[in-house]
Specification:
Distance between the termini: 59 Å
CATH architecture of the largest domain: 3-Layer(aba) Sandwich
Number of helices: 8
Strand order of the largest sheet: 3-2-1-4-5-6-7
Strand content: 15-25%
Oligomer: single chain
Number of strands: 16
CATH superfamily of the largest domain: Formyl transferase, N-terminal domain
Largest sheet: 7 strands, mixed
Helix content: 10-25%
Shape: elongated
Length: about 325
């Protein structure tokens, strides 16, 4: 099968390599271009898929709009049998999908129809889900809405962060993509293929914003721990250390642990024996094991306490 891959982010790299190492013919990569509004001396963001494709000696195209006449012409010109799409960054139109006889398949980092959208791994951890997985669908112009060809479920570990889970799911996607391609080899191009998604089970996984990283200490310790795990590396989970007669200190939380309530209102800081740092929440206490003060590196709580020594009136809250 002649395959054109479409992807930009790191989630797609293992699947690109898997197709390259298979008996299929991988003719190149379509990826998103670097932004044009960079400030002076600002470096363009990394494009893991471009790097991977170039290391394999593949041709790379990066149209601004893949659904424009220029973009559709690129897709048509390679005469591929199938588009394989993962972590690309743009929804394909009917015209774009029609450039290949078998249309396109998409690898998505959730158990569709749950968590359609740009940040499925983040929201699965944030919401405290016990399991997630990967799904390969036959594509339609509707976001993540096509019939399911392959789906595999995994357990989310209680301490797993977003980058850790995403890497695990990314590798899991390799075999799913190849299995979905095998199904399409014998497809007649018109009959129904795969399992239709249950519209009543759809949930959204929208792109994150910087503001969502601010910690609300009225939430439970378990919810805040999940947020810290989910919002790595961006936007991070941040708060401010507030003390009388001192400037607020912005902190990004690293590893945390849930414990019993220690008394006081949400946001109240407790320093325990052995240089342990706790914060009261809306339900339970949250031990902060790692944190990063503004302008500093991520450090252990014990090192932070030696350098900053919170006063008795210290609280963590929003800066307002």
């Amino acid at each position: 099968m002649k395959v054109l891959f479409m992807g930009t982010g790191p989630f797609a790299v293992p699947s690109l390599n898997a197709i390259h190492d298979s008996d299929h013919e991988l003719v190149g990569l379509v990826t998103r271009p670097a932004p044009t509004n960079l400030r002076r001396k600002q470096k363009p963001p990394k494009n893991p898929m471009r790097d991977a494709a170039e290391s394999l000696g593949l041709r790379v195209w990066d149209p601004r709009d893949v659904n424009s006449s220029e973009g559709v012409e690129i897709l048509s010109s390679v005469a591929a049998d199938l588009l394989v799409v993962c972590d690309y960054g743009q929804i394909l139109s009917n015209e774009a999908l029609a450039t290949t006889p078998l249309g396109g398949i998409n690898l998505h980092g959730s158990l569709l129809p749950k968590y359609r959208g740009a940040a499925p791994v983040h929201w699965a951890i944030y919401n405290g889900d016990l399991e997630t997985g990967v799904t390969v669908i036959h594509m339609t112009p509707r976001l993540d809405g096509g019939p399911i060809l392959e789906r595999v479920t995994v357990t989310i570990e209680s301490t797993e962060t977003m980058p850790q889970l995403e890497a695990r799911l990314s590798n899991l996607g390799r075999s799913c993509v190849l299995s979905a391609m095998l199904q399409l080899e014998d497809w007649d191009g018109t009959s129904l293929i795969g399992e239709l998604q249950d519209a009543s089970q759809v949930s959204k996984a929208p792109r994150l914003t910087k503001e969502q990283g601010q910690i609300q200490w009225e939430q439970s310790a378990e919810q805040i721990k999940n947020q810290v795990r989910a919002f790595q590396p961006w936007p991070g989970s941040y708060t401010w250390l507030l003390q009388e007669a001192q400037e607020p200190l912005r902190l990004v939380l690293g590893d945390t642990r849930v414990g019993d309530a220690l008394g006081g209102s949400p946001g109240q800081v407790h320093v325990g024996e052995g240089h342990r740092l706790w914060v009261e929440t809306g339900a339970g206490g949250l031990e902060i094991l790692q944190l990063q003060p503004a302008g500093k590196r991520m450090m252990l709580a014990a090192d932070f306490l030696r350098g900053y020594a919170p006063a008795a009136d210290a609280r963590m809250n929003s800066i307002q």
